[in-house]
Amino acid sequence: MSDIILLNTLYKPNFGGVENSIDSLSYIYLSMGYRVTIICSDIGIKKECDPCIDDNLPAGLTIIRYKSKLFGVLKGPAIRVFFCYHKLKFFKNKGSLNLVLSRHCETTVAAGLARVKNLVYLPGAIAHEQFAVNSNVKSIRSIARGYLAKIIQKLALRLAKYKVLVFSKNMEEGIKRELGVEILRTVKPGVDRDRFFKISENQKEIERKRLGIGSRKRVFLILGRIVPQKNVLLAVKMANLFGPNDHLLVVGEGSDSLKVEKFIECEGLFDKVTFLPATSEPERFYKVSDWFLMLSSYEPFGQTLLEATACGLNISALSSLAGVETATEEIYKEYPALVCFSNDKNENRLWDAINKTEQNADIFETERMRFLESYSWRALANELLDLQHL
């Protein structure tokens, strides 16, 4: 039996677009008859969960977790690369290894140093750009971390022998501009249609009541990491403009969580905003919502956009004129009925853009189905395997 290795620094119980891609591809490869090993760090694992977090896995799937800290205290990219390398070196001479797919620069460096065969690098982001947008203050520490991330990113590209793929032209241009490297090709991700799908209005009402947000409300959703890059406060400020039937769901955790909670409290928005912790079931929150808010300052693709559209949500986003660098305009270029844009990073402009959107249910549904047909995890899984013949 042939083997597939999927690498990333994070995996369950963490959630996000990259983690979901690892999960979806693992099950596709299992269905194709491959043995799959997911190698990731122990970040996010709580001690009380250790005995059970990786239990009940399907036959053929193995999860290997490497340490993210030395002596339980020291941490950093070099330490994570070291521990990841020590897990990977045992696969160096494995002849049945068909594909090693890495989604992070650190795991790519570890795989390159371990000299595993058939390595492909599919970065989720340009690491040092993420440090820049996630830092409110350009301290010496944040600048140093950015430079270190850039060095690791360049090393990852070199060790992957430039067998590098990206999900968007936006990402391709960013790599060329920031790192001076040509990528191999642009590919399309997929979306799990068995997990992310549209439910009936009656079922939506039932699920909303279970969440305690009432019925017959227009529900807006922010889902993911609560960090400066995501501009979550912009959405919460917009809640001040809501009518009696509007509600905002914020689902996630991060460095801005306390700031968001304090703003909700100071503005008395408890009846308009529900703030919930991170979840391993994001589909539950997509399905009860009507609008998904993509307000990131930097997002090279945005897997959450595909998931939201699969669940039938309208998309509201910031355009490049608002000073953001995302792939949203590229993704929805041929599907204008699915998205509306604000050209200003301002809650009033964002609210105006949403309310001025003319909605035609038939056109929306036709475009939505056409959009989803172009994204398939199985097609990507086969394309990744075909790379080994180049």
Question: What features would you describe in this structure?
Answer:
The chain has 390 residues and is of the alpha/beta class. It folds into 2 domains: 3-190 and 375-389, Glycogen Phosphorylase B (Rossmann fold), CATH 3.40.50.2000; 201-373, Rossmann fold, CATH 3.40.50.2000. It has helices at 17-31, 77-88, 105-114, 127-134, 140-159, 169-179, 201-211, 232-238, 257-267, 282-287, 303-310, 328-331, 347-355, 361-373, 377-386; strands at 3-7, 35-41, 61-66, 69-70, 74-75, 97-102, 119-121, 165-166, 185-186, 218-223, 246-251, 273-276, 291-294, 298-299, 314-318, 325-326, 339-342. It has a 6-stranded parallel β-sheet, with helices on both faces. Helix 2 (77-88) crosses helix 3 (105-114) and helix 4 (127-134) packs antiparallel against helix 5 (140-159). The longest helix has 20 residues, at 140-159. The relative contact order is 0.11. The model is unreliable at 131-135 (pLDDT under 50).
Number of strands: 17
Query: What's the total helix number?
Result: 15
The CATH superfamily of the largest domain is known as Glycogen Phosphorylase B
| Helix coverage percent | 25-40%
- What is the third-level CATH name, the topology of the largest domain? Rossmann fold
Beta content: 15-25%
CATH class of the largest domain: Alpha Beta
Instruction: Let me know the largest β-sheet.
Output: 6 strands, parallel
Q: What is the CA-atom radius of gyration, in angstroms?
A: 21 Å
Helix/sheet category: alpha/beta
Kindly report how far apart the N and C termini lie: 22 Å
* Total number of distinct structural domains: 2
CATH architecture term of the largest domain: 3-Layer(aba) Sandwich
Strand order of the largest sheet: 12-11-10-13-15-17
Please tell me what the overall shape is: globular
Task: Tell me which oligomeric state these chains represent.
Answer: single chain
Mean pLDDT, to the nearest integer, reads 89
Spans with pLDDT under 50 lasting ≥5 residues?
Answer: 131-135
